[in-house]
Design goal:
The chain is an all-alpha fold and 322 residues long. It has one domain: Phosphatidic acid phosphatase type 2/haloperoxidase (Vanadium-containing Chloroperoxidase, domain 1, Up-down Bundle). The chain is built from 13 helices and no strands. The chain has helices spanning 57-60, 62-70, 81-91, 110-123, 127-138, 140-151, 159-183, 188-191, 210-224, 235-238, 257-275, 281-299, 306-317. The model is unreliable at 1-20 (pLDDT under 50).
Length: 322
């Protein structure tokens, strides 16, 4: 549908990354005479060279998703990355969890549901100030532009950083959709019709927010590529029962200003979805929580992993950031 917004933070964008040789920008129309120019019996050697290693990053990112799934710590048998992250969400004590009897902090009373709806209504106060920003971030290109603008990323020069962002996006989408299928929470306007969303949400369940998960995962992996590096919070900080607040408190200085800006950007993208009326606060927080778990697991893949090698390559491109 022309003009339809992509509300799942789809970052598969045309960022002039495919402007290399042989990619083209449209169809080519050959005349009927063209086949006559081809030798009648071509002699074609098996190519010695392989396809260039820097092929379309939006598709190349899937190799890193495979590594995330195959080497996810603790996965095997009936335990998958989705079920393990789901279990982490169910065991935590600071985010309401819908539609799962195993959750220790469940959304299981009218008072708790009402609190979530009131949160959406209260957030709508910010619509006048944020409407254009929300609409801009609802599209894939608009959302990605906030990270590329913050870090002054040039796709033609910072190819590893662009690939790292796309890897985080695809892993985030994989995790978010798996969790949404499990919890299948109704959107705010489906629960309380007086909520008039600023934009139409996608045809996906509400919990967790994929915008929040992908935004915090993108910022999280980019922080791994900063100098000095900002790693994920320790596993103990997210293990239940937790004695630390969520989200974890920012580390005291020296904490790179770029890392602080990345944190604020992810929080803002997530909160804007609440302002728009398409997510509850618990959706945003659960997305943030799942993203922190993902960063921990990615970091645990180790120095020999393709993911860690990509982080190191991106670090060379981001070395001059404050």
């Amino acid at each position: 549908m022309p003009g339809k917004l992509d509300l799942d933070l789809d970052l598969d964008l045309d960022l002039d990354l495919r402007a290399g040789r042989g990619t083209g920008r449209g169809p080519r129309y050959n005349t009927d005479d063209f086949p006559r120019l081809i030798p009648p019996v071509p002699a074609v050697n098996v190519p010695v060279k392989r396809y260039g290693e820097f092929w379309d990053p939006a598709h190349r990112a899937w190799a890193y998703v495979r590594e995330f799934i195959a080497d996810f710590p603790g996965a095997g048998g009936i335990n998958t990355p989705i079920t393990l992250i789901r279990d982490d969400i169910n065991r935590q004590h600071f985010i309401r969890v819908p539609n799962d009897p195993l959750a220790v902090h469940p959304l299981n009373t009218p008072a708790r549901m009402t609190a979530q709806v009131v949160g959406v209504l209260n957030a709508s106060i910010d619509r006048a100030d944020r409407a254009l920003e929300i609409i801009d971030q609802a599209s894939g290109q608009g959302a990605l532009n906030y990270w590329t603008g913050l870090l002054r990323i040039d796709p033609s020069k910072d190819s590893n950083t662009i690939l790292l962002i796309l890897v985080a996006h695809k892993i985030g989408e994989f995790v978010a959709m798996g969790l949404k299928e499990h919890y299948r929470m109704r959107r705010p306007a489906q629960v309380y019709p007086w909520i008039m969303p600023l934009i139409d949400g996608p045809d996906t369940p509400s919990f967790p927010s994929s915008h929040s998960l992908q935004a915090h995962l993108i910022s999280g992996v980019l922080k791994l590529a900063l100098t000095p590096q900002v790693g994920p919070p320790p596993v103990a900080a997210l293990a239940p029962p937790s004695v630390v607040p969520f989200p974890p408190v920012l580390a005291p200085l020296p904490y790179p200003e770029t890392a602080r800006a990345l944190d604020e950007l992810a929080d803002r993208v997530a909160y804007n979805r609440e302002v728009a009326g398409v997510h509850y606060r618990m959706d945003s927080r659960a997305g943030h929580y799942a993203a922190l778990v993902c960063v921990q697991k990615l970091w645990a893949l180790g120095a020999a992993s393709d993911f860690q090698k990509l982080v190191n390559a991106a670090r060379a491109e981001l070395s001059d950031l404050p």
